[in-house]
């Protein structure tokens, strides 16, 4: 009887630790230790008006996609972040390098031309 009770308590404590760990990750994801940098990418057939996004490591990158023509999405390779439709996403640029961003909705003949580069220094 005593053992079952202790096992239950241990499970509760363990799940609390797991929840705390997940919560910590979310906070890290939402707020970086750098500046918040906002960008708007205007998408038309078949081009992003903004072809380069340059930030520093630790910055929070806030990206708004505006589909002026057609239906497009922006996916940041290497960060696994995507914005679809007229929405805003934000993520922390926590690794340096050059990452391509591409349209991730097959939008037509010029789809492959819809690329840009995220530079994290
Ligand atoms: Cu496309």
UniProtKB/TrEMBL annotation:
The keyword Kinase does not apply. Coiled coil: none annotated. Residues 1-20 form the signal peptide. Residues 14-120 form the EfeO-type cupredoxin-like domain. The keyword RNA-binding does not apply. Keywords: Signal. InterPro entries: Cupredoxin, EfeO_Cupredoxin. This is Cupredoxin domain-containing protein. It comes from Lederbergia graminis.
């Amino acid at each position: 009887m005593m053992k079952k009770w202790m096992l239950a308590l241990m499970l509760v404590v363990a799940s609390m630790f797991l929840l705390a760990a997940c919560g910590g990750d979310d906070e890290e994801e939402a707020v970086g230790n750098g500046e918040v940098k906002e960008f708007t990418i205007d998408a038309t057939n078949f081009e992003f008006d903004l072809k380069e996004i340059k930030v520093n490591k630790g910055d929070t990158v806030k990206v708004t996609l505006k589909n002026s023509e057609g239906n497009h999405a922006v996916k940041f390779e290497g960060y696994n972040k995507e914005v679809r439709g007229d929405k805003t996403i934000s993520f922390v640029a926590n690794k340096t390098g050059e990452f391509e961003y591409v349209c991730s909705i097959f939008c037509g003949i010029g789809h492959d031309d819809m690329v840009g580069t995220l530079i994290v220094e």
